[in-house]
Records
---
Amino acid sequence: MPEIKVVPLGAGQDVGRSCILVSIGGKNVMLDCGMHMGYSDDRRFPDFSYIGGGGPLTDYLDCVIISHFHLDHCGSLPHMSEIVGYDGPIYMTYPTKAIAPVLLEDYRKVQTEFRGDTNFFTSQHIKQCMKKVIGVNLHETVDVDEELSIRAFYAGHVLGAAMFEVRVGSESILYTGDFNMTPDRHLGAAHVQPDLCPDLLISESTYATTIRDSKRARERDFLKKVHDCIDGGGKVLIPVFALGRAQELCILLESYWERMDLTAPVYFSQGLAEKANQYYRLFINWTNEKIKRTFVQRNMFDFKHIKPFDMTYADMPGPMVLFSTPGMLHGGQSLRVFKRWCSNEKNMIIMPGYCVAGTVGHKVINGARSVEIDGRPVEVNLRVEYMSFSAHADAKGIMQLIRDVRPRHVMFVHGEDAKMEFLKEKVEKEFNLPVFKPANGETVVVPTRLDVRLDVPVSIIEHSLSLDPSPSKRSCPFRAAVRMDRAAGGDLEVISSQTAADLLGLPLHTITFSQTVTLPKIDWKQLTRALRTLDGDLQKKEDGLEMFAGEVTIMRIKEASDELELVWDEGREEWVDLILERITNASNSP
Amino acid sequence: MHNSGFSIGSANWTIQTDYEKVAYLSATSSRTSHTKAVDWEKLKGADVLVLTSVSVAPERNPEESVHMLCVTVVETLKRGGNVLIPIAPTGVLYDLLECLAANLDQSTVSVDTPIYFLSPVAESALAYANIYAEWLSEKKQNRVYVPEEPFPHSIMLKSGRLKSFTTMHSNFSREFRTPCVVFTGHPSLRFGDAVHFMELWGGDQKNAVLLTDPDYSMMEVLAPFQPLAMRAYNFPIDTRLDFGQINATIMRELAPKRVLLPEQLTKPPATAPTRTDFVVQHSNQTPFRVGDTLSVASSASRKRVRLDPEIAKGMDVSARGALAEAGMCSLRGLLSAYDNILELKSDSVDKENDRSPAVRSRLGGQLVGAALIEALAKIGVRAEPVPAADQSVALVRVPDWSAIVAILDEGKRSKITCESKANRRRLADVISTCLTPL
């Protein structure tokens, strides 16, 4: 039996460093190439030496697919393509292709300038890497080679996020990347062609156990907390990624400031933000319907209340709100501002998204009252709020997706082991599907259906279809023979039974059945009319009627005037009841 | 769906089955413009190619027209005249704005010379062009990665060189300065703001009107405004494929087996009846007229059927009997054509539920009465030959099942007469044991 092999190099029972190897129909595909932000040693990158036994990647991999621009999905790409070495095609959507290099460059700066990492990819590497990238549009089937094709579907989550279907012949997988099943202020909900029926669905499961409360309530909660804090004269720090949730929260805060007529300043990290908004303008097609409809008159991303931030503002007295990058407090401006604000209990930090284990953000969320920054312990006195705004599907959303696409197998990645176990049991119970949740490096083998196709002459098919009287044509008796000519290269050829008999030098034997029908009177005209509805090509003969090219005959019996003989080929058995019914009805009607 | 390179979002289409391919070649352009390059690959080798849209200004080269247009605009402005370009609000306009700006920069015309674009959809038309990067040429596409807007018209808008208005009755009257260039509709000069500008500028020979739409003839368009002092030029810009491109390269490269095309494309155009090169040349072409229904016979004699893995596994094509060279085995089952997906299922599934009868292979060989009686005796069923009136018929009576089997046509046909359906089947089963299944 054919099979699909899947090995997660990252994101197996873990969040971060997404990288999944798939072998399907003799093709090898890498899904995502992320990095782990909790580590700064070798563990931050997937173990590329595992691939193809350490040989050149270009020879082994047929293509690399990047689902969206978050670093835990594309952060290792320049490392893989330029330092390890890969020259094959890399696919991502147009917005991802535009935004990923910006984030990579940002990440590189943090690593090399703040951390002093020297063994790292360079700007030049990023540029060279992006040259290998091919842009993909939604729903466009891209033929990677003769057999392998990929197709992108809208995934919500962030601008340009996509799910990818990978197909080789009849085998296919659907990789969700990160996705979101509920539309929000600036993005739509994930949308996959229903009934895709992939052999394997590889789904993220970040929020596998949470069924999140209503979004409205969460947003009200967020606004209330921010408002209370600035009323008390505190400063609010919201660490975000420059693109993604940041825009969602900015739209939310902007409209709240407008409505409540607030004057406290709201800032956004400079540089990246303006560039980010420019991207949103150019890829407005990837946002939701409302923004698309109004973008000519009014751009949602031109904020009135939100201004660019300068580091000198950090020590200004009075309340303020700051959206600062990066999102997990793992370096850069966020960490510097945090260091200055964290000792004052009037201040507040709101973590709007997931933090990878090992980052300062993760420690703070878990209630650490003292964290180590730049090698020195810092006291944490400010209020810490963790509110999940990151746009991942919750358990309900994942179940919904499974219901929509009807996969044959399910595999969970990008989540925590215990939470996955819960969802796994749920899916197994509700859908009765086999579910996998491999750890990193663990191979999952998914059997697929054997796909054999034969070219059958149309005449044989037509005859077979005509043998089944039911209009659905679901079970039509089919009889033929297959011939393999060794001289002609062993190709299989479908031939009719007649041809097969001729080849064997035998005559074809036909078994027929016969039945006598007694009727009150025989009206041939009426009979002909009634039976013509079953066979338009019905033939009138001297002594009766011939249907289906002689496969059913109705003959008068010489001596009797009220009896008919019905003779039919074995294959026409299914039609007999119908024919008998017509005959009886025809002779009973006036 | 495959990029056709004519405008943003324009596409050629193919409809493909396992054996046949129909390609629809609509308005297509292989010239350099703002659009993504045309994708020919998938249109190759079609059984039927439907060709509908060909340049209607085959005698004019569009690149030359654009060049002449820019030169004329510069000349007119230098003369102190105004330029009116009646045009549709999308498509060629984007390229014209870009070319014109470049040409004006190189000339001595003041950079303050305003370019107005008047259309109820002006703002949207300009904005939308910038958000479909995936439909734009590679050069334009690469700009969004910077990120910059793909078209320079947004910079022209920001700098105030290009101004867009919904109509001339809006703020336009306050901003209006001459000399200037005005892009507005409608190209037919029968409605829209273009009509007002014709009235306004028609009397002065310093001004110029530049017609670019190939669908309208200059004579007819200008007729109601005669006598016209204003200079009028015709620079038709039709980027669609012309006959030269179609006959010289496209037909050879796409190599369709058959071409369906409108009748007009099979004879020279009325405007140039002597140009016999202005026809589509293909050895197998079928012209059609509006409203015609064309039937194209299917050339496929086979269809692809998916086999149930059970059947595929059970196939044993080893050599048999006289056929040492070629193996053969029977292929039987239940064919499903539901949803037009052909699938051969194993009949064993239905046997368990007893819904559908097992499908028996066809049988080969001649049936002999004695063999049948012997086979029946083996399973303990009594049978006897009955003398028949007709010499060519052998009759066997099976009293246990109250049935009579007539063996006809030298044993190539057997007729079972029996009232019970179950007994009929049983008898047929016994007959099959006497013969060779195919």
Note: Chain A is about 30% helix and 25% strand.
---
Amino acid sequence: MEDTKNSLIIALQHHDIFDLESPNADTEVLPKGIAFSFIKAVHAVNQRLVSHNSSESLGFEVILIANECSEESKVKIVENVKHYGMEICKFYFCKKDEVIKTLQSNNVKLFLSTDSDEIYKALHADVPAAVLYDQTGVLDQLKVTFSGDIIGLPEDSLDSLADLGFSEAQIKTFKSAKICMKEFAGLIGEMRRRFGHENSPLCTCLITVWGSRNICLSALKTLGGWGLDVDEAFCMAGAPCSPILALVKPHILWDGGLHNLRDVPNFEL
Amino acid sequence: MSEIKQEELNSTNQNVEKADETDWAAAKAHYENLKSKKPRPPKPKNAVTIAVSSRTLFDMVKDRKVFEEEGLEKYVEYQQEHENEPLKPGSAFPFVKALMTVNERLRTLYPDSEELFDIVLMTNNHAQVGVRLMNSINHYDLTIERFCMTGGQSPIGYLKAYMTNLYLSKDTKKVQEAIEEGIAAAIMYKPDMMMELSETQLRVAFDGDAVLFSDESEIIVKQHGLDTFFEHEKQHENKPLAQGPLKCFLEALGKLQKKIYAKNERLDCPIRTFLVTARSAASSGARVLKTLRSWGLEIDEALFLAGAPKGPLLQKIRPHIFFDDQMFHIEGAKEMGTIAAHVPYGIGQKYNKGKLIEQPEKLQK
């Protein structure tokens, strides 16, 4: 994949690409991790983009970040990427506390992780980050989901979240997430427009978990203003989100750190 | 947990449940914080969830034509161009308004209860069409806070995820799929003329066989004739009929009615149910009433027509919705101004006006 100025660079970590917890992790060939389906879907989008227009400059670029790896592991990782034929152009081996710096210096448009703490920390440092969802699906469509609660809430309402018990740091993170989502949405929107409504390798979705229908409506319009017309929209108004997510099966879930609520005082039920 | 939901709560694990509880608390806080005058929607597991499609809630006949004649892309464009024009009410609109009225009463009598109607918009449409739908819902100030705009995917999975008690759509295939999955569902038809309906009471009329009850007796009529049917019903008078696809919905209505009776409001109950059956009271009616009794269900009015047409009687009853399994009765109801909902279940689908349809697999849309 060429290093063009319209590349949407996505960073993944080696322990999400390969399943290092599995009992078979000692073998030469590493077992597949959660990110496999994602990488396949990204590859399909890239192929379709080029097939529509051979001089297409827009596309995804996946880079791999691995921290605290032995020399042996580094070799194993590179070999396995080759073995599986994954289109990963760059490898960054660094220390654990250097991950954020690595992301920042490489113009990463999205850092995907399964660890919500990591995502929260990244967003706090203004690095765009989202959840790599364990969708265990057979979808060949790349599915990207945005949080309507963050996008649909106007600025002053985001501030008033302090009344609900959210800390200033958390609110700052939500605001940072909103800015990151805007940029990402614009890029995804452009890509999405290369395909029609049907038979698209890329599908975008909006999920509003807490907000009322007007928040959802506001989010839809905001996203439209940012250049992305989403395909699917769900408004939960507080209903349990997990059954719906299990059906939507996104690869990328932009929740803006909203669901990392461990530090929020217990609400009165 | 409320008994209104028939299915068990499928919770995957402790963490997921905890996360869901937090979402719920946050939504509750969010609503209260924004000092919204709008009441907060109930938790799905406690509520009677009614899912309506966009074409049943609103009149989208013209829009459908654009889709069929010009294709999906042009259709979405058309909806985006007209997004600020509210849609006109559809066949399920009066039903939804009546549900809202009942909720208001229930909230007055039981301010902390979540045993209410919860209306979900369940549509195949793309989210961009959703903007117009939401603008229209705002225009009429309907209490619909939950949406699924599936962008072309089948809604069946989502129906289950919302623990839907009743699904109304214009799409035969989807309704059949829902019934097969055990969800009460029906295909809505707009009546030929609009009648004035009650604004203070939800009135729901049900056919008996193959709607509230299974089609076991229906099969006997179709295959062996009326005389055999009468004999069979007399013989089995004390054996309850098996349940049909809409039985659970009647049950849910009954539970809400009981709550209202408990507050001494029986004479002014905002829900009234009717049984409108072609059975005759003398020869085959007893079994029906005994079956209902064995299920612990009450129906407010039972009307045995002994084969007379249903249209004129329904015109007097003026229900917000009438469920029947046979198109013949649906047509009759429609012609005389009743909002009819076809339940595509049982042997009645293979017959038209008593005659076996040559190709039973091809069903009319």
Note: Confidence is low (pLDDT under 50) at residues 6-12, 360-365 of chain B.
